[in-house]
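JOB MANIFEST
job_type = single_chain_structure
chain_count = 1
residues = 236
[input]
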Amino acid sequence: MWKVDAHSHVGSGAAVWSGQDVVDRMDTVKVDKTIIFPFTEGNWDNGEIMKYVEENPDRLIPFCAVNPWDGQAAIDDLENCLKRGYKGVKLHPTICGFRLSDKKLVNPVFEVVQAYDAVVIVHGGSDLYNCPLEFDRMARRFPKVPLIMAHCGCFWEWELAIELALENDNLYLETSRVPGFETDKVIQKLGGDKVIWGTDGPFCDYEWEFNKIRRYAKSDEEFDKIMGGTIMELLK
């Protein structure tokens, strides 16, 4: 079964981290593939992502990132990326300053994603702009779009995140930065079909992020789903 990290930044932003840096770290714990997308501070170039993928085509999976405040330019960039083979998009409402459920800003992004049968991953801390209830609104508005909540609503709203993931078939929780106690509860309540492993590279302790799933998964089957099975199904 594939081991797939669903959450890693590359390029220049809060850190400098290349595609090869990602691959080198993957090899330390024998991870097969990683989803990569830009840091979302300031300006970024989605074209860099495919350059990294071309260097390691069997290891890296391209996602783009857009800022909905860029209007039609963001939509055009997103559509161009998806046409080129990018598998999804990363949004960061807190950094970019928009509510995830803002119809005028964000609906056009989800409409394009839905048209290309792609995936959305969103920063999902318990911040105002991307709290779990914002995810709930978008999951209900676009039930055909797989929506991944990074960080499981931690630190203050992880229990609500679990509740809303149970209510929305298309809402998934991703485990990067989530402490052990909360990770255990998320896996207990949702199981491998709704929980996805990620590391928020390059920021987190990679080995810890890997080993915490091994510690809290209740079976080998559940471990395999969390570590790659579920995200690979979403990416088809």
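[summary]
The mean pLDDT is 97.
The longest helix spans residues 220-235.
exit_status = 0
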